[in-house]
Amino acid sequence: MLNEFKEFIARGNVMDMAVGIIIGAAFTAIVNSMVGDLIMPIIGVITAGIDFSDLYISLDGQQYPSLAAAEEAGAALIKYGAFINAVINFLIVAFVIFMLVKGVNKLKRAEEEAPAEAPKPPKSEVLLEEIRDALLKK
After folding, report:
1. Of the CATH numbers 1.10.1200.120, 3.30.450.20, 1.10.3720.10, 3.10.310.10, which one belongs to the domain with range 1-49?
2. What are the residues whose beta carbons fall under 8 Å from the beta carbon of 88, sequence distance 6 or more?
3. Residue 13: CB partners within 8 Å, gap ≥ 6?
4. Are 53 and 85 in contact, with CB atoms under 8 Å apart?
């Protein structure tokens, strides 16, 4: 059983998956920073700082001055504002990832379409061509 486990771990796809997960975690940090530190402040300015997180419906029929007060009272709540924030955040993250993937794909296409340089001929061939050209000039 130990040998089978060693074979399983040694397979390339397991290592590829591990690398993918690690890169994915690092990429997640980049995307979250981009959304939280760059895009959300701009959206906050555009929407005049509207925050949906305090929007809720109390299922016990009572009115509370804030979400925190309702939670402290132990009321059953539908926190639809948090859901709206989550949807907005998802859409922003999805758009950022879309733009990053689109940029990477554009770079890959440009790289694939770039003509490959012809390999340089050997020095002896270059020398023979120079001799031929010199003889043709005479």
Report:
1. 1.10.1200.120
2. 43, 52
3. none
4. yes
pLDDT tens digits for 77-128?
Answer: 999 988 988 888 888 888 888 888 899 899 888 888 777 677 888 888 888 8
- The whole-angstrom separation of Cα 49 and Cα 51 is 6
Question: What are the angstrom distances between the C-alpha of 118 and each of 67, 113, 114?
Answer: 69, 15, 12
What residue ranges do the domains of the chain occupy? 1-49, 51-138
DSSP state letter for 53: G
The pTM for the full model equals 0.57
Share of the chain above pLDDT 90, in %: 17
Coil, strand or helix at 109: helix
Among residues 48, 44, 46, 56, the alpha carbon closest in space to that of 82 is found at 56
Higher-pLDDT residue of 64, 45: 64
